[in-house]
Amino acid sequence: MTARTAHLDQAVARALSGLSAAAKKGLGDPALAELVVIRASQLNHCAFCLDMHLGIARQHGVPERQLDLLAAWEEAGDVFDERERAALALTEAVTVLTDGFVPDEVYDRAARHFDGTALAHLIGLVVAINNWNRVMVGRRIPPGGYTP
């Protein structure tokens, strides 16, 4: 597979990077942030983002077992704690929007584990990675080329 275009407007890239950085900083949990962006990237089939964020997750100490089982987190038993499960459920709900909205039960579950500020940052992070996924998938950017 070859990229359709390597061009990305730098103002757009800076805006997306700023949103990502602000959301991650506000969430205050780099390991959880990487689980969230990896899960969204799995759902969106973004090889570039998966390649990049799997490496970043390892740098933040995310256990290999979590990375191995992330695609099946709901069936992974105690590999993920309740806070992580709530964040992953919200990630999927915001990413997929199956019924056109985030179900109340999913939002309420996340709200039990994150205060209002952290929840806003979590949602912002999901929105940010979904934007990045679409930018990369839309241009067919292959994995590789990212240097931490």
From TrEMBL:
SUPFAM superfamilies in alphabetical order: AhpD-like
Pfam families: CMD
Signal peptide: none
Gene Ontology molecular function: peroxiredoxin activity
Span of domain Carboxymuconolactone decarboxylase-like: 12-92
Keyword Oxidoreductase: yes
Gene3D superfamilies, per the entry: AhpD-like
Entry keyword set: Oxidoreductase, Peroxidase
UniProt key word Transcription: no
Domain of life from the UniProt record: Bacteria
InterPro entries: AhpD-like, AhpD_core, CMD-like
Name under which the protein is recorded: Alkylhydroperoxidase
Lineage: Bacteria, Bacillati, Actinomycetota, Actinomycetes, Kitasatosporales
